[in-house]
Amino acid sequence: MYLHKAEKNQISNICSHLGYAPHTFCFCEVDMQAAVTGVKELLNRLPEESSFEDIQYHLYVIAKIQQGLARVESEDAVPHEEVEKQFDCM
Q1: pLDDT of amino acid 54
Q2: Are 38 and 25 within 8 A, CB to CB?
Q3: Measured between alpha carbons, how far is 53 from 30 in angstroms, rounded to an integer?
């Protein structure tokens, strides 16, 4: 299953709104250099008074976004239109 362009754009917008670099985290396998770059970008966006827990939370969200996108790409996910039809029937 693949994501439609509109869905990728929506996820990209969410990532950007949260202060994450979608091009770094969301749509590709992350190698070590990209991971380091992404973490540096994240640290530059967070307030100075951020705690380790704040940083961990943001990294957790990034990891979950990556895992979800990888799962959609590797498994038979239900297309967005099909989900809408299922909810319309309820």
Answers
A1: 93
A2: yes
A3: 23
Structure tokens at 56: 């961990």
Mean pLDDT of 10-24: 61
- Number of domains observed in the structure of the chain: 1
- Cβ atoms of residues 45 and 19 within 8 Å: yes
CA 77/CA 90 separation, integer angstroms:
20
d(CA 12, CA 18): 10
Helical (H) or strand (E) element with 45: helix 32-45
* Parent domain of 28: 5-88
Please tell me the distance from the alpha carbon of residue 82 to that of residue 59, in angstroms, as a whole number.
31
Cβ atoms of 82 and 11 within 8 Å: the answer is no
List, for residues 32-57, the tens digit of each pLDDT value: 787 888 888 899 999 999 999 999 99
